[in-house]
Input
Amino acid sequence: MATAMSHQSIASTISQSSREPLNVQTKRFKNNSSLSYHTSRKRNFSKIEAVASQTSSVSSHNTLLSPSKNNIEHSKKKTNEAALILIRHGESLWNEKNLFTGCVDVPLTEKGVEEAIEAGKRISNIPVDIIFTSSLIRAQMTAMLAMIQHRRKKVPIILHNESEKAQTWSQVFSEETKNQSIPVIPAWQLNERMYGELQGLNKQETAERYGKQQVHEWRRSYDIPPPKGESLEMCAERAVAYFEDNIEPKLAAGKNVMIAAHGNSLRSIIMYLDKLTCQEVISLELSTGIPLLYIFKDGKFMKRGSPVGPTEPGVYAYTKGLAQYRHNLDENSEVVCS
Ligand SMILES: O=C(O)[C@@H](CO)OP(=O)(O)O
Output
Protein backbone atom coordinates (compact mmCIF):
# COMPACT_ATOMS: atom_id res chain seq x y z
CA MET A 1 0.00 0.00 0.00
CA ALA A 2 1.19 3.49 -0.74
CA THR A 3 2.08 5.13 2.56
CA ALA A 4 3.23 8.56 1.44
CA MET A 5 -0.09 10.12 2.30
CA SER A 6 -0.48 13.57 3.77
CA HIS A 7 -0.41 13.72 7.59
CA GLN A 8 -1.60 17.31 7.79
CA SER A 9 -4.64 17.95 9.88
CA ILE A 10 -7.95 17.95 8.08
CA ALA A 11 -8.43 21.64 8.73
CA SER A 12 -5.07 22.63 7.32
CA THR A 13 -5.37 20.49 4.22
CA ILE A 14 -8.66 21.97 3.14
CA SER A 15 -7.60 24.84 0.94
CA GLN A 16 -9.32 28.17 0.85
CA SER A 17 -10.60 27.46 -2.63
CA SER A 18 -12.03 24.12 -1.56
CA ARG A 19 -14.21 25.95 0.96
CA GLU A 20 -16.39 27.22 -1.86
CA PRO A 21 -19.84 25.70 -1.83
CA LEU A 22 -20.03 22.62 -4.01
CA ASN A 23 -22.32 24.23 -6.56
CA VAL A 24 -19.53 26.65 -7.33
CA GLN A 25 -17.04 23.83 -7.52
CA THR A 26 -19.23 21.72 -9.71
CA LYS A 27 -19.32 24.44 -12.30
CA ARG A 28 -15.53 24.48 -12.23
CA PHE A 29 -15.43 20.68 -12.66
CA LYS A 30 -17.64 21.05 -15.68
CA ASN A 31 -15.28 23.52 -17.27
CA ASN A 32 -12.00 21.87 -16.46
CA SER A 33 -12.56 18.19 -16.03
CA SER A 34 -12.16 15.64 -18.73
CA LEU A 35 -14.62 13.41 -16.88
CA SER A 36 -17.88 12.90 -18.70
CA TYR A 37 -20.50 15.09 -16.92
CA HIS A 38 -22.16 14.53 -18.14
CA THR A 39 -63.23 0.91 -14.70
CA SER A 40 -63.47 2.63 -11.18
CA ARG A 41 -60.36 0.88 -10.24
CA LYS A 42 -58.66 2.35 -13.27
CA ARG A 43 -60.15 5.76 -12.55
CA ASN A 44 -58.89 5.60 -9.00
CA PHE A 45 -55.42 4.76 -10.11
CA SER A 46 -55.45 7.57 -12.65
CA LYS A 47 -56.51 10.02 -9.99
CA ILE A 48 -53.62 9.00 -7.79
CA GLU A 49 -51.25 9.11 -10.74
CA ALA A 50 -52.38 12.56 -11.75
CA VAL A 51 -51.55 13.89 -8.33
CA ALA A 52 -48.40 11.88 -7.95
CA SER A 53 -47.36 13.43 -11.24
CA GLN A 54 -46.48 13.41 -14.47
CA THR A 55 -44.43 13.32 -17.52
CA SER A 56 -42.15 11.14 -19.51
CA SER A 57 -38.75 10.00 -19.87
CA VAL A 58 -35.00 9.55 -19.71
CA SER A 59 -34.39 7.61 -22.87
CA SER A 60 -36.68 6.85 -25.74
CA HIS A 61 -35.00 3.46 -26.14
CA ASN A 62 -36.74 1.87 -23.23
CA THR A 63 -40.44 1.22 -23.53
CA LEU A 64 -40.92 1.59 -19.78
CA LEU A 65 -39.70 5.12 -20.07
CA SER A 66 -41.31 6.10 -23.36
CA PRO A 67 -44.37 8.24 -22.87
CA SER A 68 -47.54 6.18 -22.65
CA LYS A 69 -50.97 7.70 -23.38
CA ASN A 70 -51.51 8.08 -19.66
CA ASN A 71 -48.22 9.82 -19.19
CA ILE A 72 -48.92 12.20 -22.03
CA GLU A 73 -52.20 13.07 -20.34
CA HIS A 74 -50.37 13.57 -17.07
CA SER A 75 -47.81 15.82 -18.66
CA LYS A 76 -50.58 18.36 -19.25
CA LYS A 77 -50.95 18.54 -15.49
CA LYS A 78 -47.27 19.11 -15.00
CA THR A 79 -46.29 20.92 -11.83
CA ASN A 80 -42.95 22.30 -10.88
CA GLU A 81 -42.96 20.52 -7.53
CA ALA A 82 -41.68 17.04 -6.79
CA ALA A 83 -40.52 14.81 -3.95
CA LEU A 84 -36.95 13.55 -3.75
CA ILE A 85 -36.16 10.65 -1.42
CA LEU A 86 -32.55 9.76 -0.70
CA ILE A 87 -31.74 6.47 0.96
CA ARG A 88 -28.42 4.96 1.92
CA HIS A 89 -28.46 1.18 1.49
CA GLY A 90 -29.16 -1.07 4.48
CA GLU A 91 -26.30 -2.70 6.38
CA SER A 92 -24.07 -4.77 4.10
CA LEU A 93 -22.07 -7.88 4.96
CA TRP A 94 -18.92 -5.76 4.94
CA ASN A 95 -20.46 -3.01 7.10
CA GLU A 96 -21.10 -5.79 9.59
CA LYS A 97 -17.48 -6.96 9.39
CA ASN A 98 -16.23 -3.33 9.59
CA LEU A 99 -14.38 -3.61 6.24
CA PHE A 100 -13.76 -0.78 3.80
CA THR A 101 -16.17 -1.57 0.97
CA GLY A 102 -16.14 1.19 -1.65
CA CYS A 103 -16.94 -0.26 -5.08
CA VAL A 104 -16.79 -3.91 -3.98
CA ASP A 105 -20.22 -5.36 -4.71
CA VAL A 106 -21.43 -7.08 -1.51
CA PRO A 107 -25.03 -7.84 -0.54
CA LEU A 108 -27.09 -6.78 2.49
CA THR A 109 -27.10 -8.61 5.80
CA GLU A 110 -30.41 -9.78 7.27
CA LYS A 111 -30.38 -6.62 9.37
CA GLY A 112 -29.82 -4.63 6.16
CA VAL A 113 -32.82 -6.34 4.58
CA GLU A 114 -34.93 -5.39 7.61
CA GLU A 115 -33.66 -1.80 7.47
CA ALA A 116 -34.64 -1.55 3.80
CA ILE A 117 -38.12 -2.91 4.54
CA GLU A 118 -38.52 -0.48 7.45
CA ALA A 119 -37.38 2.39 5.24
CA GLY A 120 -39.96 1.33 2.67
CA LYS A 121 -42.71 1.48 5.30
CA ARG A 122 -41.66 4.99 6.28
CA ILE A 123 -42.03 6.27 2.73
CA SER A 124 -44.92 4.06 1.68
CA ASN A 125 -47.31 7.03 1.29
CA ILE A 126 -44.94 9.24 -0.66
CA PRO A 127 -45.18 9.13 -4.46
CA VAL A 128 -42.28 7.62 -6.41
CA ASP A 129 -42.26 7.79 -10.23
CA ILE A 130 -38.68 6.88 -11.00
CA ILE A 131 -35.83 5.31 -9.06
CA PHE A 132 -32.12 5.83 -9.54
CA THR A 133 -29.70 3.43 -7.90
CA SER A 134 -26.00 2.83 -8.05
CA SER A 135 -24.87 -0.20 -10.01
CA LEU A 136 -24.11 -2.03 -6.75
CA ILE A 137 -26.35 -4.78 -5.40
CA ARG A 138 -26.65 -3.37 -1.86
CA ALA A 139 -28.28 -0.18 -3.19
CA GLN A 140 -30.46 -2.10 -5.64
CA MET A 141 -31.61 -4.58 -2.97
CA THR A 142 -32.49 -1.63 -0.73
CA ALA A 143 -34.51 0.12 -3.45
CA MET A 144 -36.41 -3.04 -4.36
CA LEU A 145 -37.14 -4.10 -0.77
CA ALA A 146 -38.29 -0.60 0.09
CA MET A 147 -40.62 -0.37 -2.91
CA ILE A 148 -42.26 -3.69 -2.08
CA GLN A 149 -43.65 -1.88 1.00
CA HIS A 150 -45.12 0.96 -1.02
CA ARG A 151 -48.92 1.33 -0.83
CA ARG A 152 -49.19 2.11 -4.50
CA LYS A 153 -47.91 -1.44 -5.27
CA LYS A 154 -46.28 -0.53 -8.54
CA VAL A 155 -43.58 -2.94 -9.69
CA PRO A 156 -40.02 -1.56 -9.72
CA ILE A 157 -38.29 -2.76 -12.90
CA ILE A 158 -34.57 -2.40 -13.49
CA LEU A 159 -33.78 -0.96 -16.91
CA HIS A 160 -30.98 -2.79 -18.66
CA ASN A 161 -29.38 -0.22 -20.89
CA GLU A 162 -25.95 -1.82 -20.92
CA SER A 163 -26.36 -2.96 -24.54
CA GLU A 164 -28.87 -2.66 -27.38
CA LYS A 165 -29.71 -6.33 -27.01
CA ALA A 166 -30.29 -5.97 -23.29
CA GLN A 167 -32.66 -3.07 -24.00
CA THR A 168 -34.51 -4.94 -26.74
CA TRP A 169 -34.83 -8.15 -24.75
CA SER A 170 -36.27 -6.39 -21.70
CA GLN A 171 -39.04 -4.45 -23.45
CA VAL A 172 -42.56 -4.35 -22.02
CA PHE A 173 -45.42 -4.43 -24.55
CA SER A 174 -48.46 -3.62 -22.42
CA GLU A 175 -49.37 0.01 -21.74
CA GLU A 176 -51.32 -1.03 -18.66
CA THR A 177 -48.37 -3.00 -17.29
CA LYS A 178 -46.05 -0.11 -18.02
CA ASN A 179 -48.32 2.21 -16.08
CA GLN A 180 -48.13 -0.14 -13.12
CA SER A 181 -44.33 -0.13 -13.15
CA ILE A 182 -41.62 2.14 -11.83
CA PRO A 183 -38.43 2.38 -13.88
CA VAL A 184 -35.26 1.75 -11.91
CA ILE A 185 -32.17 3.26 -13.51
CA PRO A 186 -28.80 1.94 -12.35
CA ALA A 187 -25.87 4.34 -12.70
CA TRP A 188 -22.24 3.65 -11.76
CA GLN A 189 -21.84 7.38 -11.10
CA LEU A 190 -23.91 6.89 -7.92
CA ASN A 191 -21.60 4.13 -6.68
CA GLU A 192 -19.81 4.39 -3.37
CA ARG A 193 -16.56 6.29 -3.37
CA MET A 194 -13.80 4.05 -4.70
CA TYR A 195 -11.73 3.28 -1.61
CA GLY A 196 -8.56 2.24 -3.49
CA GLU A 197 -6.14 0.07 -1.58
CA LEU A 198 -8.26 0.23 1.55
CA GLN A 199 -11.01 -1.92 -0.01
CA GLY A 200 -11.34 -5.17 1.96
CA LEU A 201 -9.20 -3.93 4.89
CA ASN A 202 -10.60 -3.85 8.41
CA LYS A 203 -11.25 -0.25 9.52
CA GLN A 204 -10.08 -0.80 13.11
CA GLU A 205 -6.90 -2.62 12.08
CA THR A 206 -6.15 0.06 9.50
CA ALA A 207 -6.46 2.74 12.19
CA GLU A 208 -4.10 0.78 14.46
CA ARG A 209 -1.57 0.46 11.65
CA TYR A 210 -1.64 3.95 10.09
CA GLY A 211 -2.97 5.98 13.00
CA LYS A 212 -6.50 7.15 13.81
CA GLN A 213 -5.87 10.64 12.45
CA GLN A 214 -4.64 9.38 9.07
CA VAL A 215 -7.54 6.97 8.70
CA HIS A 216 -10.00 9.70 9.71
CA GLU A 217 -8.53 11.92 6.96
CA TRP A 218 -8.90 9.16 4.41
CA ARG A 219 -12.47 8.54 5.50
CA ARG A 220 -13.85 12.00 6.13
CA SER A 221 -11.69 14.75 4.66
CA TYR A 222 -13.02 16.44 1.54
CA ASP A 223 -10.03 16.41 -0.75
CA ILE A 224 -7.58 13.78 0.57
CA PRO A 225 -8.00 10.50 -1.32
CA PRO A 226 -7.22 7.15 0.29
CA PRO A 227 -4.28 5.37 -1.40
CA LYS A 228 -5.16 4.95 -5.09
CA GLY A 229 -8.80 5.78 -4.34
CA GLU A 230 -11.23 8.67 -4.66
CA SER A 231 -11.53 11.60 -2.29
CA LEU A 232 -15.03 12.83 -1.52
CA GLU A 233 -14.33 15.68 -3.93
CA MET A 234 -13.59 13.20 -6.75
CA CYS A 235 -16.70 11.20 -5.87
CA ALA A 236 -18.76 14.41 -5.91
CA GLU A 237 -17.43 15.27 -9.35
CA ARG A 238 -19.17 12.28 -10.94
CA ALA A 239 -22.14 11.86 -8.55
CA VAL A 240 -23.22 15.51 -8.58
CA ALA A 241 -22.70 15.77 -12.33
CA TYR A 242 -24.96 12.73 -12.79
CA PHE A 243 -27.53 14.27 -10.45
CA GLU A 244 -27.52 17.57 -12.33
CA ASP A 245 -27.63 16.03 -15.79
CA ASN A 246 -30.04 13.13 -15.23
CA ILE A 247 -32.01 13.53 -11.99
CA GLU A 248 -32.66 17.24 -11.66
CA PRO A 249 -34.40 17.41 -15.08
CA LYS A 250 -36.79 14.68 -13.90
CA LEU A 251 -37.61 16.64 -10.75
CA ALA A 252 -38.05 19.79 -12.82
CA ALA A 253 -40.56 17.88 -14.95
CA GLY A 254 -42.53 17.04 -11.79
CA LYS A 255 -41.35 13.45 -11.42
CA ASN A 256 -41.04 12.12 -7.88
CA VAL A 257 -37.63 10.51 -7.53
CA MET A 258 -36.02 8.05 -5.15
CA ILE A 259 -32.24 7.60 -5.10
CA ALA A 260 -30.79 4.52 -3.40
CA ALA A 261 -27.05 4.89 -3.07
CA HIS A 262 -24.19 5.03 -0.59
CA GLY A 263 -22.74 6.89 2.37
CA ASN A 264 -20.29 8.96 0.37
CA SER A 265 -22.05 9.35 -2.98
CA LEU A 266 -25.08 10.62 -1.02
CA ARG A 267 -22.94 12.86 1.21
CA SER A 268 -21.68 14.55 -1.92
CA ILE A 269 -25.21 14.96 -3.31
CA ILE A 270 -26.46 16.34 0.03
CA MET A 271 -23.52 18.74 0.04
CA TYR A 272 -24.83 20.04 -3.29
CA LEU A 273 -28.50 20.14 -2.21
CA ASP A 274 -27.85 21.80 1.15
CA LYS A 275 -25.01 23.97 -0.13
CA LEU A 276 -22.67 22.67 2.55
CA THR A 277 -19.09 23.83 2.64
CA CYS A 278 -16.16 21.43 2.49
CA GLN A 279 -15.80 21.89 6.25
CA GLU A 280 -19.46 21.23 6.97
CA VAL A 281 -19.60 18.00 4.97
CA ILE A 282 -16.85 16.46 7.11
CA SER A 283 -19.25 15.97 10.01
CA LEU A 284 -22.15 14.77 7.84
CA GLU A 285 -22.80 11.07 8.61
CA LEU A 286 -25.61 9.01 7.09
CA SER A 287 -27.10 5.98 8.80
CA THR A 288 -27.90 2.87 6.81
CA GLY A 289 -31.49 2.52 5.66
CA ILE A 290 -32.76 5.94 6.78
CA PRO A 291 -34.80 7.78 4.10
CA LEU A 292 -34.39 11.54 3.73
CA LEU A 293 -37.04 13.66 2.06
CA TYR A 294 -36.55 16.82 0.00
CA ILE A 295 -39.14 18.85 -1.88
CA PHE A 296 -38.01 20.35 -5.17
CA LYS A 297 -39.92 23.51 -5.98
CA ASP A 298 -39.19 26.44 -8.27
CA GLY A 299 -35.67 25.16 -8.84
CA LYS A 300 -34.89 24.95 -5.11
CA PHE A 301 -34.40 22.00 -2.78
CA MET A 302 -36.13 22.11 0.60
CA LYS A 303 -34.89 19.65 3.19
CA ARG A 304 -37.78 17.90 4.95
CA GLY A 305 -35.92 15.49 7.22
CA SER A 306 -36.57 11.82 7.63
CA PRO A 307 -40.17 10.60 7.68
CA VAL A 308 -40.43 8.59 10.90
CA GLY A 309 -43.46 6.62 9.80
CA PRO A 310 -45.97 6.21 6.98
CA THR A 311 -48.65 8.15 8.87
CA GLU A 312 -46.51 11.00 10.11
CA PRO A 313 -48.89 13.94 9.53
CA GLY A 314 -46.12 16.52 9.17
CA VAL A 315 -44.71 14.91 6.04
CA TYR A 316 -47.95 15.30 4.14
CA ALA A 317 -48.40 18.89 5.25
CA TYR A 318 -45.25 19.86 3.38
CA THR A 319 -47.01 20.34 0.07
CA LYS A 320 -50.59 20.30 -1.19
CA GLY A 321 -49.58 17.69 -3.75
CA LEU A 322 -48.30 15.26 -1.12
CA ALA A 323 -51.37 15.81 1.06
CA GLN A 324 -53.67 15.18 -1.90
CA TYR A 325 -51.75 12.09 -2.97
CA ARG A 326 -51.98 10.67 0.56
CA HIS A 327 -55.68 11.53 0.73
CA ASN A 328 -56.33 9.69 -2.54
CA LEU A 329 -54.37 6.66 -1.34
CA ASP A 330 -56.47 6.57 1.84
CA GLU A 331 -59.73 6.96 -0.08
CA ASN A 332 -58.82 4.08 -2.36
CA SER A 333 -56.97 2.00 0.20
CA GLU A 334 -59.11 -1.09 -0.28
CA VAL A 335 -58.08 -1.10 -3.95
CA VAL A 336 -54.50 0.04 -3.62
CA CYS A 337 -53.56 -2.20 -0.73
CA SER A 338 -55.22 -5.37 -1.95
O1 LIG B 1 -16.51 1.25 3.53
C1 LIG B 1 -17.15 2.05 2.82
O2 LIG B 1 -17.33 1.90 1.60
C2 LIG B 1 -17.71 3.32 3.46
C3 LIG B 1 -19.20 3.19 3.73
O3 LIG B 1 -19.50 2.02 4.48
O4 LIG B 1 -17.05 3.53 4.66
P1 LIG B 1 -16.82 4.97 5.31
O5 LIG B 1 -17.83 5.13 6.40
O6 LIG B 1 -15.44 4.86 5.83
O7 LIG B 1 -16.91 6.02 4.25
In short: Confidence is low (pLDDT under 50) at residues 1-60, 67-77, 334-338. Residues 95, 100-102, 192, 195, 219, 263-264 surround 2-phosphoglyceric acid (CB under 6 Å).
